[in-house]
Amino acid sequence: MIKTLMPVGLAALVVAAAAAAFAKLPPPPPMTDAQKQAAEEKKEKDKAAAEKAKADLTAAEDAAVKNYQGNMKQEGKPIPKPVATADASQPPSGGKPKPQANTSKAGAQATPNAASGGTQK
User: Fold this and answer.
1) Could you tell me the pTM of the whole model?
2) Residue 56: inside a domain, yes or no?
3) Residue 55 lies inside a defined structural domain of this protein
4) Tens digits of per-residue pLDDT, 66-120?
5) Selection from 20, 43, 40, 24 nearest residue 32 by Cα
6) Going along 1-121, which residue ranges are E strands?
């Protein structure tokens, strides 16, 4: 008796949890003028902080490059020239798209496997 009640109780619990998770919540109340102003100030502060972080990162990268180049000069090794890289946000340009492989021919030439009754090599 307990063996049959356990899965039924578990299923009922899962259904109840799903119903609670999908329950529609009421929309948030509209923002007041003070809240709107605070949100704008926060957005400006975040933007300024992002710009400062970007400037700090650039300065740190420049310092690292100068350190690397100084170490290379000290050791008497040639300094490698920077390699231009494409922007990740821009798709590559030029070239024609490659034709799609003919999958019907590839499937016909495939060797049969043990599951289909053939032998494997």
Assistant:
1) 0.44
2) yes
3) yes
4) 999 999 999 999 988 888 877 666 666 666 666 666 666 555 555 555 555 555 5
5) 40
6) none
54 belongs to a structural domain? yes
d(CA 5, CA 55): 64
Tally of domains in the chain = 1
**Token pair belonging to 21:** 């998770």
Residue with tokens 């494997």: 120
Two structure tokens written together for 9: 């109780």
* Structural domain that includes position 64: 50-75
The rounded radius of gyration (Å) of the Cα atoms in the chain is: 32
* 3-class secondary-structure state, position 88: coil
Tokens 């049959």 found at? 4
Q: What is the DSSP letter of 54?
A: H
Helix, strand, or coil here: 82? coil
Site of tokens 């710009």: 51
